[in-house]
Design a protein that fits this description.
The complex is a heterodimer of chains A (about 260) and B (about 300). Chain A has about 260 residues and is α/β, with parallel strands linked by helices. Helices cover about 35% and strands about 25% of the residues of chain A. In chain A, a hairpin with a 2-residue loop joins strand 4 and strand 5. The longest helix of chain A is centred in the middle third of the chain and has 14 residues. Chain A is globular, with a radius of gyration of 18 Å. The relative contact order of chain A is 0.19. Chain B is mainly alpha-helical and about 300 residues long. Chain B has a single domain, classed as MetI-like (MetI-like fold). Chain B has 11 helices and no strands. In chain B, helix 10 packs antiparallel against helix 11. The chains are: A alpha/beta (about 260), B mainly alpha (about 300). Chains A and B meet through helix 2, helix 4 and helix 7 of A and helix 7 and helix 8 of B.
Chain lengths: ~260, ~300
């Protein structure tokens, strides 16, 4: 579990348009790395290249290397399906499978990968829901549809679903942006706990959130409209929020732009 | 600390809101009348048809023999007998067509939505397929029937049979199924596909286990509506199979009746018995289609994603 990610000089394209230019950074295991920056600066795009979700979009491609404990996930011989099994993802909007019960949603990954043993699936279901702090709220209605839960519960259901396949890394794309403050707090607490077992990368628009949950923070920005996004600075979260090296970072954090 | 607001002098200020102007009231009235009238005009022929068919067709249909006997051995002017041979023919021909057309239509739709690319990245094959489906949708049933006659009967040397009718119905049903399935697959949010990919589920399994179950409710409705549409097709049965007043279970040879065919054959029968059979068959056909639509509605409700 919990592996280290090295991103080396990654350029990301949508067709002919270059969205991200030359990003290099390292995500240590058992830590939370936050990506912050204005809209459209490419932070979500970078996140999506870390488990090869970017290439799902027609015409999208990636240059450079992304190493998971030294292994390039973009090597020719690597199966993207395998990569996504190892590096899980939670999306901006909660997206439980509408046709499935709560239990089936949690074990969807294992089931669709071919696991049939009911006892084992039940075990995974309980373990994942407990890890996502949702077990006590839903244990009496596991057979009810996942779509009937509140937004915050649905997002924790999606986190439970993502960790049920036991990934090494968990990517979160603005997981709280559709949630109220109480659900957000629940998810932030959860991130703090999950950090013990997983390597976590989180994209957020909420700088207080980045400051609260992350160990290191990466600030992304555009040089100008229409130009590719780039990594301005990455450092310990404390340093980024108290004494950043780059002027642009300080301006952004203090609210002078963005 | 308290906030004090100076009192409003109502007489001194111009009101913000004025009454609806007369011209707007008139225009609103005109438009409402026009829309309601159009609705009524559209409704008139519909109600008229249903009432006529019910009035003229109800008596023969209410006789149990109608559902249990054929017209075998009956003279044209003789009352009685039934049309179960034609009901069997209609159901068999259209269900066989549906069994062939549905998988083809669904797979074409899956190709178009899941593999054909979209926007600028649409593949050539996908564009060509969409174009052909559009053309097929507009092909008149007589053309489909003549095409099957030319290929299946003239070139391949097969006889006229119920199966030939089914083949023509397949041509008519496939584009309808493709279209409706395509629309249903398109409205499955990409979020769900991505959620599945992100769990390390391969694309084909995502389509099979996530996309199709989510769209199933609408897909079923579309398929049954297409089935209902082909059940009343008349041109293929006129060209590709001969009428029989008796039951024939063999789809691949011999004459076989169907409701539209029986109606056109009985049109040359000037007696009251003929008239009863025509209107009775019309009512039976409407009933069958209604039953299929009710089944579609029930299935769609049953398979729709639930939140409780």
């Amino acid at each position: 579990m919990a592996k280290r990610l090295d991103i080396k000089d990654v350029d990301i394209y949508y067709g002919a348009f270059q969205a991200v230019d030359g990003v290099s950074l390292t995500v240590p295991p058992r830590s939370v790395t936050a990506f912050i920056g204005p809209s459209g600066c490419g932070k979500s795009t970078v996140l999506r290249t870390l488990n090869r979700m970017h290439e799902v979009i027609p015409g999208a491609r990636v240059e450079g290397e992304v190493l998971l404990d030294g292994e390039d996930i973009y090597a020719r011989t690597v199966d993207p399906v395998e990569v996504r099994r190892t590096i899980g993802m939670v999306f901006q909007r909660p997206n439980p499978f509408p046709t499935m019960s709560i239990r089936d949603n949690v074990v969807a990954g294992m089931k669709l990968q071919g696991m049939k043993n009911k006892g084992q699936l039940d075990q995974i279901c309980e373990r994942s829901l407990r890890a996502a702090n949702l077990w006590n709220e839903v244990k009496d209605r596991l057979t009810k549809p996942g779509g009937g839960l509140s937004g915050g519960q649905q997002q924790r259901l999606c986190i439970a679903r993502a960790i049920a396949v036991q990934p090494d890394v968990l990517l979160m794309d603005e997981p709280c942006s559709a949630l109220d403050p109480i659900s957000t707090l629940a998810i932030e607490d959860l991130i703090g706990e999950l950090k013990k077992d997983y390597t976590i990368v989180i994209v957020t628009h909420n700088m207080q959130q980045a400051a609260r949950v992350s160990d290191q923070t990466a600030f992304f920005n555009l040089r100008a409209t229409g130009e590719p996004g780039r990594l301005v600075e990455i450092d310990d979260t404390d340093k980024i929020f108290s004494n950043p090296t780059e002027r642009a970072t300080e301006d952004y954090i203090s609210g002078r732009f963005g | 600390m308290s906030i004090t607001t100076p009192p409003v002098d109502a007489s001194a200020i111009k009101p913000t809101f004025t009454n609806i102007s007369a011209s707007r009231k008139i225009r609103n009235g005109l438009a409402t009348t026009l829309v309601t009238l159009s609705f009524l005009i559209a409704l008139v022929p519909l109600v008229w048809v249903i009432v006529t068919v019910l009035v003229r067709g109800l008596a023969p249909v209410l006789n149990p023999d109608w559902w249990l006997q054929s017209l075998n051995g009956l003279l044209a002017r003789q009352q009685g007998g039934g049309v179960y041979h034609a009901i069997y023919g209609t159901l068999a021909q259209s269900l066989v067509a549906a069994v062939i057309a549905t998988p083809i239509g669904i797979m074409v739709a899956i190709y178009l939505v899941e593999y054909g690319g979209r926007g600028k990245a649409t593949t050539r094959l996908s564009k060509a397929t969409t174009f052909m489906v559009d053309i097929l949708t507009g092909v008149p049933s007589i053309v489909a029937a003549l095409f099957v006659y030319a290929v299946w009967i003239s070139i391949l040397g097969m006889g006229r049979s119920a199966f030939a009718v089914s083949l023509a119905l397949v041509l008519l049903m496939v584009p309808v199924v493709v279209r409706s399935t395509e629309e249903m697959l398109k409205i499955v949010p990409d979020d769900l596909r991505e959620a599945s990919y992100a769990l390390g589920v391969p694309k084909w399994r995502t389509i099979l286990k996530i996309v199709i179950p989510t769209a199933l409710s609408g897909m079923l409705t579309g398929i049954v509506l297409a089935l209902a549409r082909i059940m009343g097709e008349t041109a293929p049965v006129l060209i590709l199979v001969a009428y029989a007043p008796y039951i024939n279970f063999n789809l691949f040879s011999g004459n076989m009746a169907s409701l539209p065919l029986l109606m056109t054959v009985e049109r040359s029968n000037p007696t009251a018995a003929g008239s009863d059979r025509i209107w009775g068959s019309a009512l039976t056909l409407i009933l069958l289609i209604t039953i299929f639509q009710l089944i579609a509605a029930a299935l769609s409700k049953l398979t729709a994603p639930k939140t409780k």
